[in-house]
Amino acid sequence: MLGGGAAERAGIVPGPGSGRASGGVHTVGLLVNPVAGLGGTVALKGSDGAEAQRRARALGAAPRAAERAALALAELRTRLPGVRVVTVAGDMGEDVLPGAAEVVCDRPLRTTAADTRRAAGALIEAGAGLLLFAGGDGTARDVLDALGGGFPAVGIPAGVKMHSAVYAVSPRAAGEVAAAYLSGAATAAPSEVMDRDGDDIVLYGLLSVPRVAERVQRGKVGSSLTGGDDLAGIAAEVDAGRRAGGVDVYGPGTTTHGVLRLLGVDAPPTGVTAVADGSCLAADADAAALLRLSTGRPARIVVSPIGGQGFLFGRGNQQITPALLRAVGRDGVVVVCGETKLAALGGRPLLVDTGDDALDRSLTGYLPIVTGRRRHVMYRVGER
Amino acid sequence: MTGEIAPKPPLRRYHAARWDEPLLFELSQPGQRGILPPALEPGLAADAADELPAALRRERPAALPELAQNAVLRHYLRLSQENLGADLNIDIGQGTCTMKYSPKVNDRLVAGHKLAALHPRQDDETAQGVLEILWRLERMLAEISGMDRVSLQPGAGSAAIWTNVAMIRAYHESRGEGHRDQVITTIFSHPSNAACAKTAGYEVITLYPDADGYPDLDALKAAVSDRTAALLITNPEDTGIFNPRIAEFVEAVHAVGGLACYDQANANGVLGITRARDAGFDLCHFNLHKTFSTPHACGGPAAGACGVSAELVPFLPRPTVEFDGERYFLDDDRPESVGKVRPFTGVAPNLVRAYSWIASLGAEGLREVAEIAVLNNNYLMTQMLKIRGISAPYAKGRRRIEQVRYSWEELAEETGVHSEDLGHRAADYGVHYWTSHHPYVVPEPATLEPTESYSKRDLDEYVAIMNAVAEEAYADPETVRTAPHRSSVHLNKEETLDDAGAWAVTWRAYRRKNAER
Ligand SMILES: Cc1ncc(COP(=O)(O)O)c(C=O)c1O
């Protein structure tokens, strides 16, 4: 049974509201990745690394992060007059709106991931209640490294790659979301930080992002749980279908991670987890371990599609191999998904790319997706 | 001097009343009274409460607000000024709600003592008039839907859907098929369908639209089984797109032994054109407060009507109104009935209003209602689609029936202004505007439904307002985003709507929840 406090256990944290830092003033930390978005205008796939940045500049690219951060800040200041902004010197924040922010950290010589981490630490030290950062997936990963997922942050979309669910839908919306959180009108929930790795899309972890319906980016790739989604109902439905003595293999992601937490299993959201009779058999398990653990007893595979793209298998969860899928069978596949993420697919079918064509074909057709307790959506798994 | 009337600007310089009116309980002052009843005559019991059994007696008087008559009147008049009622604004912005004019003559009819003073426990013999109206209204609705019988008992659309689900359950149980535990619906059908099925204990399977916006027939075929109790579906759906394959949906459900139930709450686009029974449906319901013009009554008591085929007649709520050729009477002896879903025979004033409305129009008039509603909607759509940043997703280039779900996705991408913001700004011009049910399957949605009540001039005014608001979103997004500026209240905290710890529908709950905070 799932008792009260479900939201809390799913990692949803209230906004600070009246819990303001110093003397009733709301404080936001502003962090700009000055080279974010550099690659995009010249059709490079990203701006991570010195070589990509050099090439981008050589191709005539100009960064756009500062301009976008200025829009976000303007919106924040309209909605929350008197907000205190702490930031990093120079083009990592100070230059966005000169004179508008308190500089509490030097501009590092370079802007490496380590510099981002140091700067984020300084902003929190200076009393920030929320981190507002401008960048793309690379920046989000650095912020995740620095904050560890517990501290609230929201991204100003300024990068080339933005697969993560941590950005507002526009720079102004980022200001709006920050204002809503700082004033206590919004709570924060775990949201996926994802990045492309070759053809694969990898989940790096969960960042705590204020949830404001329709204002935080959805439908790209990463997801977060929004207000209307019934995570507790999904967890109860998954639990009710459990077979005694069976093993359940959970794919990565916010939804499955939320379900696991509600069922009392703490495992990293980035890996594949094997669970039996309510306890964790293996976290971050590899293909061989999963196959071994699920042989000789009833097994299910619980997965949630990758937001926006709709991949069920073959992206970000290759530990779930064709051999495992064949052993479990189509009937043992339990797809879980909040209604918001489903709506964001815009009617596009779910996809599978296991590397085994015959298996892929056998998975196509309609599958019931669990959206709540005794609630399903009949949804199509298409041919790629 | 000759007085000249200054020309009015093209858009109204509307401003809502803003009274900062406290709650009635906050206005209460000890000792204030609305009326002073005369003192008891000598010889009568000093306190009638003494006659009551102790268990029924309050220990302390109820904590009711104490106010003078004029204070109460002023309070409610002020609140009514801070409202945008159907009689005040061009109420076409609440798509799916089918806001139409409720003729005032019908209010006069039901305000008369003949109906207002009628008591539901009166002997049938003394209530022949109202029973005849109920009986005739039932026949009219049976004719409009093609169904065999109709119950007028439910107090609203959702109550009617609930009643239909209860009859579906009773039907299957009577045949020894109580194992059927699934109900199928679509994401663009009204959410009350899923909610009522869930409340009745059914597992709910929802179908999403295919690429053209139609409910996906293949998904239905994958969903049906011997566990299927029923399909609950709207047509046209919230998108305003009519499902031309509806008969195939019904067949697929019948093929596995399930029932097909048509949510015709809003039948405004199909009155006199299509009938539920002709498409094979076993049950349907109408919202009399939508299609048949009675007031919506802010969530009730309104009126819903359930129509059923002959096979389901035994399960209708009781009592039914019967006619033996001479007199009308109530039949309570219906052993298979699902029971009562509301006291007595339903909300009589609304039933009389609906009867009067239908009688005044006749069969041809009803069809004309649908035709004008559809014409109005397609004119409105043509004009709306000229506005920058808007689109009508799905079924490109095709006409819609009685409403359209638009999308401001393009405008939102270009300006950062969202559909809700446009709605808040529209309130500054004195009109209502609604987005969509959740989840937002159509991004940045807006749903408009003009019904037959509005003139071309009304529609043009609404379009002009939406055009001005959209243009403003491009030129001065700040003003739109921070709207409303000329309305009675600013913004509500929407987060609290989903927070059971925050909402309060009574003063007592309000105080309790706020003390706890
Ligand atoms: C199609 C449809 N069905 C059902 C309902 C529910 O009716 P009610 O609000 O009277 O409960 C509505 C009302 O919006 C509706 O539009």
From TrEMBL, chain B:
<dbReference type="GO" id="GO:0005960">
    <property type="term" value="C:glycine cleavage complex"/>
</dbReference>
<keyword id="KW-0663">Pyridoxal phosphate</keyword>
<dbReference type="InterPro" id="IPR015422">
    <property type="entry name" value="PyrdxlP-dep_Trfase_small"/>
</dbReference>
<comment type="function">
    <text>The glycine cleavage system catalyzes the degradation of glycine. The P protein binds the alpha-amino group of glycine through its pyridoxal phosphate cofactor; CO(2) is released and the remaining methylamine moiety is then transferred to the lipoamide cofactor of the H protein.</text>
</comment>
<protein>
    <recommendedName>
        <fullName>glycine dehydrogenase (aminomethyl-transferring)</fullName>
        <ecNumber>1.4.4.2</ecNumber>
    </recommendedName>
</protein>
<dbReference type="Pfam" id="PF00266">
    <property type="entry name" value="Aminotran_5"/>
</dbReference>
<dbReference type="GO" id="GO:0016594">
    <property type="term" value="F:glycine binding"/>
</dbReference>
<dbReference type="InterPro" id="IPR020581">
    <property type="entry name" value="GDC_P"/>
</dbReference>
<feature type="domain" description="Glycine dehydrogenase C-terminal">
    <location>
        <begin position="370"/>
        <end position="473"/>
    </location>
</feature>
<dbReference type="GO" id="GO:0019464">
    <property type="term" value="P:glycine decarboxylation via glycine cleavage system"/>
</dbReference>
<dbReference type="GO" id="GO:0004375">
    <property type="term" value="F:glycine dehydrogenase (decarboxylating) activity"/>
</dbReference>
<feature type="domain" description="Aminotransferase class V">
    <location>
        <begin position="174"/>
        <end position="292"/>
    </location>
</feature>
<dbReference type="GO" id="GO:0005829">
    <property type="term" value="C:cytosol"/>
</dbReference>
<dbReference type="InterPro" id="IPR000192">
    <property type="entry name" value="Aminotrans_V_dom"/>
</dbReference>
<dbReference type="GO" id="GO:0030170">
    <property type="term" value="F:pyridoxal phosphate binding"/>
</dbReference>
<dbReference type="Pfam" id="PF21478">
    <property type="entry name" value="GcvP2_C"/>
</dbReference>
<dbReference type="InterPro" id="IPR049316">
    <property type="entry name" value="GDC-P_C"/>
</dbReference>
<dbReference type="InterPro" id="IPR015424">
    <property type="entry name" value="PyrdxlP-dep_Trfase"/>
</dbReference>
<dbReference type="InterPro" id="IPR015421">
    <property type="entry name" value="PyrdxlP-dep_Trfase_major"/>
</dbReference>
<keyword id="KW-0560">Oxidoreductase</keyword>
